[in-house]
Design brief:
Elements lengths: L12 E2 L2 E3 L6 E4 L6 H8 L3 H6 L2 E11 L6 E9 L2 H18 L5 E2 L5 E4 L3 E6 L2 E8 L5 H20 L10 H4 L12 E3 L12 E8 L2 E9 L3 H12 L5 E2 L8 E6 L6 E9 L2 E7 L15 H12 L8
Antiparallel strand pairs: 1-2, 2-4, 3-4, 4-5, 5-9, 6-7, 7-8, 8-9, 10-11, 11-12, 12-16, 13-14, 14-15, 15-16
């Protein structure tokens, strides 16, 4: 391996594949042989998005099968400046795939979080993201997914164990409840959650409660004052207002879809270093004449989220 710094990250062999001795290892970064700007083109990724998330370095090499006309797995490790940037990238890739309908990711046990597609796998661990891409000239397209799954699973787990840092997600993502959460719906937005200007990074996920679908969101700040600032910022947004007689200084916020202009309502509250929110994706129930529409469901979900959070860290 050309760069000894990364030798420990990649097992020489796994699942019948070995590091390709005939393919160059490539390292992109400010202190690396190749400029970081070239990594986006090689990986077919958005350069501006990578810069926004704080990409620092990329290491790329190839695993090859030990047989004639071998299949190959391109392995890339993207190192970010923080776990928040890494998980933000991971979540965006999953969300982008869901929006266009491919690849169809499913959960994979590796690192802090992982997903397996037809011929690709993604793993996040601390400030790094591993991407694996399987290709085979000897297999028909309809057979590639079945052949790729065991290889990608084994390689993802073997490499993830060797990557630096703890296999832990950022606190806001890790503290979102598991019960009822849709697989791979959890995301971390490393700049402003839900594009609410000035609120800072946070996590969200989608949940099922019978036939009702809703989302929960969570900010974890360094102190109580910073958390209060988030709630104050939310109250300044158009359409926001404080709800009377509601727990945790509950505040109604409207999230506008940038593509359609449609509004989705949220209820956010504040407790210690936490700001938690629940969406009201379903229409509110009818209320008696002269009274405002009920928002009990969102308020109660927000309250349950914050009720379950305790302590001042570390998490």
């Amino acid at each position: 391996m050309a760069d000894a710094r990364f030798a420990s990250w990649f097992p020489p062999t796994s699942a019948g594949y070995c590091v390709d001795p005939n393919a160059d290892q490539r390292v992109f970064g400010a202190q690396a042989p190749l400029p970081l700007a070239d990594a986006a083109e090689v990986l077919a990724l958005d350069a501006a998005k990578l810069e926004r998330l704080g990409l620092v370095e990329v290491v790329a090499l190839t695993y090859v099968e030990d047989r004639d006309d071998p299949s190959r797995v391109a392995a890339s490790v993207l190192r970010f400046g923080s776990p928040e940037g890494a998980y933000g990238f991971f979540g965006e890739r999953i969300a982008d795939a869901a929006e266009v309908g491919h690849p169809a990711f499913r959960p994979l046990t590796a690192g802090a979080d992982a997903a397996l597609g037809d011929t690709t796998a993604l793993v996040v661990r601390a400030a790094t993201v591993l991407r694996l891409d399987f290709t085979s000239r000897g297999l028909a397209p309809e057979r590639q997914a079945a052949a790729a799954a065991p290889v990608l699973t084994a390689l993802a787990q073997a490499i993830a164990e060797r990557l630096p840092g703890e296999a832990k997600l950022p606190p806001a993502a890790r503290l979102l409840p598991e019960r009822g959460r849709r697989p791979l719906s959890r995301r971390f937005e490393a700049l402003d959650l839900l594009d609410f200007e000035g609120v800072g990074p946070g996590a969200l996920a989608t949940y099922d409660d019978g036939a009702v679908h809703f989302r929960l969101a969570l900010f974890v700040k360094q102190d109580t004052d910073a958390a209060e600032d988030v709630l104050h910022t939310l109250r300044k947004l158009d359409g926001s207002r404080r709800l009377k007689n509601a727990p945790y200084d509950a505040t109604r916020v409207v999230e506008l879809d940038p593509k359609t202009g449609a509004g989705k309502e949220w209820v956010f509250g504040h407790k210690g270093v936490f700001v938690g929110g629940a969406s009201l994706d379903a229409p509110p129930r009818a209320a008696p004449k002269g009274e405002p529409p009920e928002r009990d469901a969102a308020i109660l979900r927000m309250k349950r989220l914050l009720d379950g959070l305790h302590g001042a860290g570390p998490w």
